[in-house]
Amino acid sequence: DVKVTQSSRYLVKRTGEKVFLECVQDMDHENMFWYRQDPGLGLRLIYFSYDVKMKEKGDIPEGYSVSREKKERFSLILESASTNQTSMYLCASRTPGGLSYNEQFFGPGTRLTVL
Amino acid sequence: GEDVEQSLFLSVREGDSSVINCTYTDSSSTYLYWYKQEPGAGLQLLTYIFSNMDMKQDQRLTVLLNKKDKHLSLRIADTQTGDSAIYFCAESNNNNDMRFGAGTRLTVKP
Question: What is the SS3 assignment for chain B?
């Protein structure tokens, strides 16, 4: 059974704190993604990585950074958390698709509240 | 930029059919997807359709694609309370970019 796990289901942090969200996949997927999910806005792509040590900005990278030191692990970092980063964060992974169908596998999400 | 749009809410009675609609703007879309998100969980792929098809059926699910109008729909026959969830429409193109809609919250009333 394929699996994407995220380090925490719920997290509460204070404004200005440094926050690490961890994601691990056991499917040997090259591509990994971080999204945030907000009501009425759906999923918005923050950062993605095509392979180890590679990273690309998504649609809303401001205030975030990422780290991919190992193939199975993709970390999202909030250098200085702000209240507008309160959201549900979803990690996903997939095999590279090219012209063929490819499915993204999602983790259960981390609900982050910044006070 | 390219966009995927869907209505935010749909409410049906148990046993009725549900139809969730989606429109997209990317004319180079290659695959279109429906994902389901149950409460407190991540997204799970429900079904997908290749852009050169106009219909796909899988048990209670029927996907219709009108490529000319860039309109995708998901029909759930005999909707059950267990179908209550948020349904996301998504599309991907040759560049492997994937875009999601805002999600439609389906509520099934007994």
Answer: CCCEEECCEEEEECCCCEEEEEEECCCCEEEEEEEEECCCCCEEEEEEEECCCCEEEECCEEEEEECCCCEEEEEECCCCHHHCEEEEEEEEECCCCEEECCCEEEEEEC
**Across chain B, what does the average pLDDT equal?**
92
Q: Report the C-alpha gap between A46 and A16 in whole angstroms.
A: 19
Q: Which residue of B has its CA nearest to A107?
A: B42
Q: What is the pLDDT confidence band of residue A1, given thresholds at 50, 70 and 90? A: low
Percentage of chain A with pLDDT > 70?
93
* CB of B20 closer than 8 Å to CB of B8: no
The C-alpha atoms of residue A54 and residue A68 are separated, in whole angstroms, by 7
- pLDDT for position A101: 66
The pLDDT value given to residue A70: 96
A64 DSSP assignment: -
CA distance A100 to chain B (A): 9
Q: Give the chain A residue nearest B88 (alpha carbons).
A: A42
Q: Which of A104, A105, A110 would you mutate first to test chain B, the one with the most B CBs within 10 A?
A: A104
Dist CA A42 CA B110 (whole Å)? 27
